[in-house]
Write a structure and sequence with these properties.
It contains 20 helices and 13 strands. It is of the alpha/beta class and 452 residues long.
Length: 452
């Protein structure tokens, strides 16, 4: 496979509603930003693009089948080859990886990946119903319905298993909203306290309104290329471009129906699911004690798809100690609870330690006053952008939004794009993006690295 570089990206302003623009115009907003950042005008860029990949989640929101081809037309990419991908909340992450495949395989030298969702055309309850159709409509949907109920059930089990507390969940919300305070593209730029989060209207216990992401209008795009494509882009731009290499990708899947997820034995966990940093004697003894006390994996408190996607991505990128070898993670935090669960899936801590990790300070940004008494220093900031909870979640754009923010982090250009250096991870060399669908049915993990 050929090396693949992510050289540019753009995002639209995410908002509850963008009545000023149609969905193709939102894509163009992100696209125009990406090519302006490259310093290449559209006619020349069009000549260099070999293919595109488009992502959006649901035809229901736009009431338009084949919406991607309308965006392809609007940004002037006809008659370039293209295809649309869909995979629930992971749609944008899948789009990014499909673009990677096109370049790595030799099919294309320059690929444009773009994604969008315009969710404001329906009432919130109807939007939640559309999203809930990504659960099993014959079994789970009739008895549970909306996703907040599923995630409340999953975190309730996590709390019962491990002693996770609502206050630990609230640490995630405080962190991500205060991070987003410095991100001009974010939908919700707020300074919150633990009390603010816990006193917000309850949606499904223990999740309050401030524990849950919001529906949004928005778009994002990235430009991926081979070494030959990079040479062509640099010639067109008249300058060298910062090299961010996509060094590893991984994907995982799991049963749509939560009740169908298996309870693996301790031996099978170590045979199939354990990460390299869990092979030491201390971790083996820790997990043996969990199993002896009735813990079963993955159950409904863990996302096996996230673990398998992480394991594959780490193997491809040569990562054996993710907490200390990854400088930041842009993680799919549709709920504060899912961020905590995903800390464990990605090996930033062990299963059962996610709540304590959330309140430890290790996932926070350095140099920001969160108004919290954090016992430890930042190690690997998670969602320095503000994540889905604060940036918003226009589903088809979200995974690509994560990629854009990761590219800017690794190009060390956050101050340029945000007009504020606060969210720049110091000396960022390697980052991970994590995109998650359903109740953990599709998950993508991609590793990006800065090359000098």
């Amino acid at each position: 496979m050929r090396p693949v570089y992510a050289v540019s990206g753009g995002v639209s302003k995410f908002a509850k509603a963008r009545p000023d623009k149609t969905f193709p115009a939102l894509v163009k907003e992100a696209y125009d930003y990406a090519i302006a950042d490259l310093g290449i005008e559209h006619p020349k860029f069009w000549e260099l693009v070999d293919a595109t990949v488009a992502s959006y989640f649901s035809d229901h929101f736009t009431r338009q089948l084949m919406a991607a081809i309308m965006a392809q037309d609007y940004i002037g990419m006809l008659p370039k080859p293209s295809h649309r991908v869909e995979g629930g909340g992971a749609t944008g992450g899948i789009c990014f990886q499909e673009g990677w495949k096109s370049v790595a395989s030799g099919y294309a030298d320059v690929v444009l990946c773009y994604g969008f969702e315009q969710m404001s055309h329906v009432e919130t309850w109807k939007g939640n119903e559309f999203i809930a159709l990504a659960s099993d409509v014959s079994f789970d949907y009739p008895v549970g319905g909306f996703y907040s109920g599923y995630y409340a059930m999953m975190v309730s089990r996590h709390m019962a298993e491990f002693g996770t507390t609502p206050e630990q969940l609230a640490h995630v919300s405080v962190k991500n909203h205060i991070n987003a305070y410095h991100n001009p593209y974010a939908q919700k730029r707020m300074r919150l306290t633990i009390e603010d989060v816990r006193s917000a209207p309850m949606v499904a216990w223990p999740l309050t309104r401030l524990d849950i992401c919001v529906m949004s209008d928005g778009a994002a795009c990235t430009v991926l290329c081979s070494e030959d494509g990079l040479t062509k882009l640099e010639k067109a731009a008249g300058r060298s471009l910062p090299k961010v290499r996509v060094s590893g990708i991984g994907r995982g899947t799991d049963a749509m129906r939560l009740a169908d997820r298996p309870h693996q034995s301790y031996d099978d966990f170590y045979r199939y699911n354990a990460l390299p940093n869990e092979m030491d004697d201390d971790s083996r003894a820790y997990y043996k004690e969990l199993w002896d006390h009735g813990f079963r994996y993955p159950g409904v408190h863990s996302f096996r798809a996230g673990r398998m996607g992480s394991k594959e991505a780490y193997k491809n990128a040569g990562i054996t100690d993710p907490l200390h070898e990854i400088d930041f993670v842009e993680l799919h935090d549709a709920y504060t609870s899912s961020e905590i669960q995903t800390y464990e899936d990605m090996g930033l801590c062990r299963y059962g330690e996610g709540g304590a990790f959330a309140a430890s300070g290790k996932a926070f940004m350095p140099g920001i006053d969160y108004g919290l008494d954090l016992p430890e220093e930042p190690v690997c900031p998670v969602n320095p952008s503000g994540g889905l909870i604060a940036c918003g979640h226009p589903v088809g754009a979200t995974g690509l939004m994560q990629a854009v923010f990761a590219i800017w982090q690794l190009q060390h250009t956050i101050e340029k794009h945000f007009g504020d250096p606060t969210l720049q991870v110091p000396d960022a060399h390697r980052g991970a993006i994590h995109s998650h669908a359903g109740t953990g049915t599709y998950v993508t993990v991609s590793i990006l690295e800065r090359e000098e």
